[in-house]
Amino acid sequence: MLELKELEVAYGEVQAIWGIDLEVPEGKIITLVGSNGAGKSTTLRTISGLLTPMRGSITFLGEEIGGKKPHEIVARGIAHIPEARQLWPDMTVYENLELGAYSNHARAHRDKTIQWVFELFPRLAERRHQKAGTLSGGEQQMCAIGRGLMARPRLLMLDEPSLGLAPMLVEDVFRIVREINSEGVTILLVEQNIVNALSTADWAYVMETGKIIMEGPGRELLDDPHIRGAYLGV
Amino acid sequence: MTDLLSVTVSGLLLAGLYATMSYGLTMIYGVMKIINLSQAGTFMLAAYVAFTLFTYLGLDPMLSLVIIVPAFFLFGMLLQRLFVSRVPLANTPTLPSLLLLFGIWLVLQNLAYMIWTGDDRSILTSYTYSTINFLGLQLSFTRVMVFLIGLLALFALQAFLTRTYTGKAIRALTQNRPACMLVGIDVDRIAMLAFGIGVAFDALAGTLMSLLYAFTPAFGNTFMLKAFVIIVLGGLQNYYGVAIGALVLALVESWAVMFMPASLQPAIAYTLLVIVLVLMPRGITGLLEGRRTV
Ligand SMILES: Nc1ncnc2c1ncn2[C@@H]1O[C@H](COP(=O)(O)OP(=O)(O)OP(=O)(O)O)[C@@H](O)[C@H]1O
Ligand SMILES: [Mg+2]
User: Fold this and answer.
1) Looking at the 3D structure of chain B, how many domains does it have?
2) Distance B181 CA to ligand 1 centre (A)
3) Which domain holds residue B126?
4) What is the ipTM of this complex?
5) What is the pLDDT of residues A156-201, one digit of tens each?
């Protein structure tokens, strides 16, 4: 569905991604893990069009999308739930969700999608008229995921959705991700919570300083000595 | 007593104009984080267009709004597309953006000198000196109409910002730009529309001013400075705050007339500005909201 080939990305003069290859097959949950500053968020930002690739290609459903504008990429069915939620704090939960369905194909199904989001997150339905800036951290994360779903994506990319959440809520987030996937949405998940990410994913990529250093089925990587040593501290 | 009442009522009427002339500035600041220094040029140009339509076609300025406002909406979008969109993005106003917009103001002024010369102009309608009786007060008909048109425009803006997708996108872009890009908002298009709407509002204000004041090509700068004071009072990008800021400035200015010589009146806005910047940097609404957790 999505394929990155020899992708290189830089912030001005500073290169952050050094030629990565990555594939996300339709219907799967793929995870991208790695330590701070490895380049995970940069990869997602490039796919969603916030950054322009320096070299290499990004194809989605057979079409080159590298360098296209973000709104063109959303319209093709990719939603990106960014690091740190990035809600509109002075707008209500409902307005945040509504704007999630901004692109034409999503707007047509807006009311149906909002029903679905409220079923996934009953908490959001209760707080629909509350300003997003006044939600708790967990609720903000739900709102961010809900907003991403409002775009009716075929591919949903999540950047550290479990960051800063209490352990119980972390479990919830991973359960929701699996639930969304079971509805037919392909998932690309960036995480620092390696155990949960690897056990949820069909296939995992491990990133270090702008390169992919390892890949494999999630559960197999969990048993890999390098992973256990470097990320799990065992 | 009637003195205080009449001064207060005229302050309220003035607040309508003050709010109208500040919304454009706040919208453009909110969406692009630039201070539109060409605003005074739009006030002036709209006043001259109203003057020309009135003098040569006999069109009443209040009626000519239906031509002027859409025309300046297009003009604003054109300015944004051609010039403003080329200024690098930033989170606070940058020198290049200020210079560019100041330059546009100068060009507009010179254009006006060429077309209309530097002579004082004013618009004298059949109702310029009419008054209406309200609670025993004699109010200028023009000022009441200016207030009502301003109020109507504010309600229209409010409805647009809260009810339409484009209006919501403008508010969203004010609060978080990357998030807008990620939900598929064409942020360049929204910035262009917002600049057009801002300039259209300035043109509305300028046309209303042409009914109240005499003007030359240099007209508008005191009003632009007041608009700046008002949006700082209001917290820069808060629409309710702007309405409150306009009310505060207009009332303080009106009341002050009772205590101090009129020649000092222009200083009030700047004194208020200094007080606000020192004591409440987030504006009046910042105080009302208290601390917010974001
Ligand atoms: N806006 C930016 N300007 C310049 N360099 C940046 C910028 N954002 C990130 N970088 C650099 O790019 C590299 C990759 O950053 P990135 O945010 O993609 O890492 P990450 O894997 O998402 O890390 P984390 O887990 O901490 O979120 C880092 O070295 C970082 O310093
Ligand atoms: Mg990151």
Assistant:
1) 1
2) 19
3) 2-293
4) 0.90
5) 999 999 988 888 889 989 999 999 999 999 999 999 888 999 999 9
